[in-house]
């Protein structure tokens, strides 16, 4: 079983917020559509994919993981 240290959780949270803000900023500055609803849907859709890949990348980083033996 693998757990995270508190430091790892805090760092992941901060990095994720930066990535999410950059995602939103990119969608809004590109102004792909003039509809606020479509932009919001696009931000959420891309956010799902970005978060998925963010978590996959974080899982490959061993720093801050605590491996516990099963008892």
Can you give a write-up of this model?
It is built from two helices and two strands, in the order βααβ. The protein has 71 residues and is mainly alpha-helical. It has one domain (2-62). Helix 1 (6-30) runs antiparallel to helix 2. The longest helix is centred in the N-terminal third of the chain and has 25 residues, at 6-30. The model has no long low-confidence stretch (mean pLDDT 91).
Main pleated-sheet profile: 2 strands, antiparallel
Nearest-integer average pLDDT: 91
Number of domains: 1
Q: Helix- and strand-based class? A: mainly alpha
Sheet-strand content, in percent, reads: 5-15%
Work out the number of β strands.
2
- Radius of gyration, in Å, reads 16 Å
The low-pLDDT segments are none
Query: What's the number of helices?
Result: 2
Helical residue percent band: over 70%
Major sheet strand order: 1-2
* Bulk shape: elongated
Q: H/E order of the elements?
A: EHHE
Distance between the termini: 10 Å
In brief:
With 71 residues, the protein is mainly alpha-helical. The chain has 2 helices and 2 strands, in the order E-H-H-E. Helix 1 (6-30) packs antiparallel against helix 2 (36-60).
């Amino acid at each position: 079983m693998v757990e995270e240290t508190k430091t790892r959780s805090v760092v992941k949270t901060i990095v994720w917020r930066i990535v999410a803000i950059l995602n939103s900023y990119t969608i809004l500055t590109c102004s792909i559509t003039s509809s606020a609803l479509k932009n919001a849907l696009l931000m959420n859709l891309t956010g799902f994919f970005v978060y998925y890949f963010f978590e996959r990348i974080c899982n490959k980083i061993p720093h801050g993981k605590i491996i516990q033996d099963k008892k």
